[in-house]
TrEMBL record:
Protein name per UniProt: Flavin reductase like domain-containing protein
Listed InterPro entries: Flavin_Rdtase-like_dom, Split_barrel_FMN-bd
Alphabetized SUPFAM superfamilies for the sequence: FMN-binding split barrel
Flavin reductase like domain span: 76-229
Alphabetized UniProt keyword annotations: Flavoprotein, FMN
Cofactor(s) for this UniProt protein: FMN
Single GO molecular function: FMN binding
Stated family: Belongs to the flavoredoxin family.
Pfam families: Flavin_Reduct (PF01613)
Length: 284
């Protein structure tokens, strides 16, 4: 075989591979006789006005239904009193605010961090959110069973500048690192300062306040002396008597508990195998 013939033979596999690759490389779609297809379509009108149609899913449930579903489905939610103050006016005066919140949760312990949610609602933002943006200070106070009437009283939609402390029946106690007072009757209170605020500007609706999240870092703890153990590490449920927010106007209380040991993989797996470690048992 001559060298030229050998070179041609050697090139053949490569050419076949390229041809196959080209056959499979279909970025440009085969649309057939496009001119014929296009001639059967309506003409393009540059001045045709835009038609307003229904939304893609006109039967989608509104936000209020989301609220009812979520507050009855994510339960129980802890309820806390948030104590804030407004910024000072020209005369140095400020307004105190006290409101219960269930869109609230502790999210870390080191550093101790909390998150507070403010849902969108008609007209102005909540007084608590207004104050947090102005002063960046708050006291988070636990709520016990015997405080439920104060929860209901302070839930009233008081106008900005009116203090809910006056209708709560609760007493103010001094704080160390922030200006707002803590609730004297609360078993556990946390002073904190705002570290970040997220406003959901892409979700603003006409006539509604903006939905927001506030991130708070704790600066000091207060705990009722007879409600905590000697190591200051555990609160007595018989003293704290926490309440949980359920759906609608319902609340839940703690009347029974149980304990469950947390397993360690290195101890459980060698003895029982992966099927037993992860098995959930049900009983009638």
């Amino acid at each position: 075989m001559s060298s030229s013939a050998a070179a041609a033979a050697a090139a053949t596999p490569k050419e076949d591979t390229v041809s196959a690759a080209k056959a499979n490389y279909k970025i440009v779609a085969d649309v057939g006789d496009f001119n014929k297809t296009q001639s059967q379509r309506p003409k393009f009108y540059h001045s045709k006005p835009i038609e307003v149609t229904q939304s893609p899913n006109p039967n989608w449930e509104p936000m209020v239904s989301n609220y009812q579903l979520l507050v009855s489905g994510i339960t129980p939610r802890p309820i806390e009193f948030l104590s804030t103050v407004s910024g000072s006016d020209d005369d140095g005066k400020f307004t105190k605010n006290l409101s219960p919140f269930s869109y609230f949760q502790v999210i870390d312990h080191d550093p101790p961090m909390f998150i507070i949610g403010f849902s969108s609602h008609p007209e102005r933002v909540k007084n608590t959110f207004h104050n947090l943006k102005e002063t960046s200070e708050v006291v988070i106070n636990t709520i016990s069973e015997n405080m439920i009437e104060a929860v209901n009283a302070t839930s009233i939609d008081a106008p900005y500048g009116v203090s809910e402390w006056e209708v709560s029946g609760l007493h103010e106690a001094p704080t160390k690192t922030v200006k707002p007072s803590r609730v004297q009757e609360s078993v556990f209170s946390t002073e904190g300062k705002v570290v970040d605020i997220k406003e959901f500007e892409d979700h603003v609706q006409p006539g509604m306040s903006i939905a927001s999240l506030v991130l708070v870092k704790a600066t000091r703890f207060w705990v009722q002396e007879d409600a905590v153990n000697a190591e200051l590490s555990h609160l007595d449920l018989n003293k704290s008597r926490p309440l949980g927010q359920l759906g609608g106007i319902s609340y839940g209380r703690v009347t029974s508990t149980f304990e469950q040991l947390r397993r360690r993989w290195n101890e459980e797996y060698p003895k029982r195998g992966i099927e037993s470690v992860g098995r959930v048992e049900t009983k009638d």
